[in-house]
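Write out the 3D structure for:
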Amino acid sequence: MSDAATLLDEVAADLLALPPAQFTAARNARAEEVGGAAGRRIAKLRKPTLAAWAVNLLARDGQLAEAVELSHALREAQDDADAAELTRLGRQRRQLVAALARRAADLAAEADSPLSPAMRDAVEKTINAAVIDPDAAALVLTGRLIVPIDLADDTDPSRAVAGSVPDRPTVADAPPERDDLAQRRARKAAERAVREAERARSDAERALSAARTRETKAREKADRVRERVDALRAELARVERDADAADTAVEAAEAQTASARADATAAERTLEQARSALDEATP
């Protein structure tokens, strides 16, 4: 890129970060200061919309790099046809886009240029475009947007930014293309296998804990039953001894009854004899 083009991009980035109400006066002053052909090019710079300006503030604030990283992850998940990962990343994308849009609105309000609901919507669509489309990300990351970007429209990149049209973004901490599709799929498969093994281990640990609990309860119940059996056996032995003693007592009582019966019979005979003798002795 030539020195003149670099200068134009730098000046444009500075001017487009100013509140739009200050843009025209600042642009004209800078064009006059630079002068010559470069000054004439600066004088032709267009004023940004409020939505584009708010996104420029967000880019200068350094908070769009995470969105670009997410776009790399989304494209990788699409290449891998990983439905679960796409679902997770899609949810993360919506949360991130909404958070960045709120941050852009806060930055605009701090600069005394609050955004209307329509402008907030345009900001969110622009950030979402940066996440989904690498060309849109390149435009947004310049911090030189003039108009917001909507993927539903066929926006001319040369009319979307002031100065030079950038190539696709190369963010320092964006994930490089480390491997081919087959390697990524193998890595994903290995990650899934690890997750499944971890879930299986957790399930097995829960099953083991439940089995140990059941075993402890079963042992406690068995101990209580054994104690009851031992008590019943002791009671049975005592009752059997009592029964033997009772039988012995019955036998003794029967012997006494037999003896008493014999005595009673003998006494009856004696009485009869005595009465007979009495009768005989009586005149």
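The CA atoms of residues 59 and 142 lie 7 Å apart.
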